[in-house]
Specification:
six-stranded parallel beta sheet; five-stranded parallel beta sheet; 16 strands; Rossmann fold; about 500 residues; pyruvate-formate lyase- activating enzyme; 2 domains; globular
């Protein structure tokens, strides 16, 4: 076969809510670029394409809703709520292109030699399932390869429910190329695989109609082994790129696509700062760029010294999110002890000294971990609020393969053979009742109240009215505990001990 034709598809999201917050299928785009560099012809359909002309025409718009830094909502269509999560008092929806537009996109592409479908959250599997169903209707007999996070973490479920012709776990460039080389009798696809991470071509962002932002990875994997995180399962190796190659990619790609906003996808962006991120930021600063940078994944505040804080501010980092998770000593030691409250305070102070306002800084706080009490969550929220920073509650999702998933199963919080839909963080996965959902919602309301105060420079530790409002909210939570006593004491203990 001369030039095999490969169709890459980024599927829909099915969920109670979804938002384009620097969301791009970077793994699939790396694979597309890798195959194309070896001679394959690559087509691409993004079911989350906000710029599709038929979609815009249907919406009566010239351009999609684009909000801060190129982020914004996807097109949304309400669909029936799956039975396992029907107790949640919210509408379930499909996010992305209407199905008829997607079907016409498939037909326009023509019959490929193979189709690659990626996947993300385990509880988003209805998206790739429906994509594969429609692909087989339009292209009967064409082999389908499934990869991505869901495929990696739940391969048995994916093989049973989606039934791909092949399933790839972990990073996919080389395995996909080798598989296609065998299937399509095209040995050139598998020749001379890269030995270094910097030998891979840049992700194929040119396959998009238009970009509002760019995403970049300076490393793959993560050296930490947090009990709730599956990064080390998805990619067991922590590999880092050369600083000069990262800078070259950022400057080249932002000029090519004429974008100002760049989001780092690293799970450990600040690790080994003297060897990697600081040289990257010093070199970027030397180019006097007008770019804006974002870190949607949590930063390790332990590494934010005065120099790091200066570099972040001088390079126009607009989205700063620090992983605090919990101030409870036992919890921190159990998770991985990535940061202490003292280190968090020092990181915030360094960022403020560099020029940030406290309200410019956000912190991730975990909620809903196995045996985690509301008091622990609220204590951590109050600590973060005392620093003046904004709170982002990160609801726990029991991810297969993680320590906390196994604990949840062993302790009776989560069924061992549960439908992946039940891992959805929105539903309070360890509790799975409407009452529990409403309790979590109340904690979210408290976080919202604290954040609204922080944005206005108001602290509950000063004005009496704000402090009284907090006290009322906490008393409300306590009454809720009393009302749901037996269930709460077993599933969501008040004391945490």
């Amino acid at each position: 076969m001369d030039r095999p034709r490969v169709l890459c598809i980024n599927p829909w999201i099915y969920d109670f809510s979804a938002y384009d917050y620097f969301s791009k299928p970077i793994g699939l785009l790396y694979i597309a670029a890798y195959l194309r560099a070896r001679g394959a012809r690559v087509d691409f359909i993004d079911c989350l394409d906000k710029y599709h002309p038929e979609l815009l025409q249907r919406q009566g718009r010239e351009r999609p809703k684009i909000r801060k830094y190129g982020t914004g909502p996807w097109h949304r269509e309400v669909v029936p709520t799956p039975t396992p999560v029907a107790f949640i008092p919210r509408r379930y929806a499909r996010y992305g292109l209407p199905e008829d537009i997607f079907r016409r996109e498939l037909q326009r592409c023509g019959t490929p030699d193979a189709v690659l479908v990626t996947s993300f959250m385990t509880y988003w599997y209805p998206g790739p399932r429906r994509v594969v169903e429609m692909v087989r209707q339009v292209f009967p007999g064409v082999p389908v390869i499934l990869g991505g996070i869901y495929a990696t973490l739940m391969p048995d479920h994916a093989r049973r429910v989606i039934q791909p012709d092949a399933l790839i776990q972990g990073p996919g460039e080389v395995p996909v190329a080798q598989l296609l080389a065998d299937w399509l009798h095209c040995p050139s696809l598998a020749e001379s695989p890269p030995e270094d991470i910097d030998d891979y071509p840049y992700p194929a962002f040119d396959l998009y109609r238009k970009l509002d932002y760019l995403v970049v990875m300076t490393s793959r994997g993560c050296p930490f082994r947090c009990t709730f995180c599956a990064t080390y399962t998805i990619d067991s190796r922590f590999t880092q790129r050369r600083p000069d190659k990262v800078v070259e990619e950022i400057l080249t790609q932002t000029r090519r696509f004429r974008v100002r906003d760049v989001a780092f996808y690293d799970d450990a962006l600040l690790m080994q700062p003297e060897r990697r991120i600081k040289p990257i930021l010093w070199e970027l600063l030397r180019h006097r760029h007008r770019l804006r940078f974002h870190t949607p994944n949590g930063l390790h505040g332990r590494f934010i010294d005065e120099e790091m804080a200066y570099l972040l501010y001088a390079n126009h980092f607009r989205t700063i999110r620090i992983s605090l998770e919990s101030v409870a000593g036992e919890r921190r030691r159990d998770i991985h002890n990535k940061i202490t409250p003292g280190e968090m305070t020092r990181a915030v102070q360094n960022l403020i000294k560099a020029g940030y306002q406290p309200k410019d800084i956000e912190t991730y706080i975990m909620m809903g971990l196995p045996s985690q009490s509301i008091e622990e969550v609220v204590e951590t929220m109050l600590y973060a609020h005392s620093l003046g920073v904004l709170i982002r509650l990160a609801a726990f999702s029991p991810i297969p393969g993680t320590v906390d998933y196994q604990r949840a199963v062993e302790n009776g919080y989560f069924p061992s053979q549960a439908d992946p839909l039940l891992t959805n963080k929105t539903i309070g996965p360890l509790f799975r009742t409407r009452e529990a959902y409403e309790r979590f919602h109340r904690v979210n309301q408290l976080a919202h109240m604290l954040n609204e105060g922080a944005k206005r420079g108001v602290s509950l530790f000063r004005p009496a009215a704000f402090r009284n409002a907090l006290q009322a909210a906490l008393e409300d939570l306590a009454r809720d505990h009393e009302t749901h006593g037996p269930e709460v004491s077993r599933k969501f203990p008040v004391s945490g001990r």
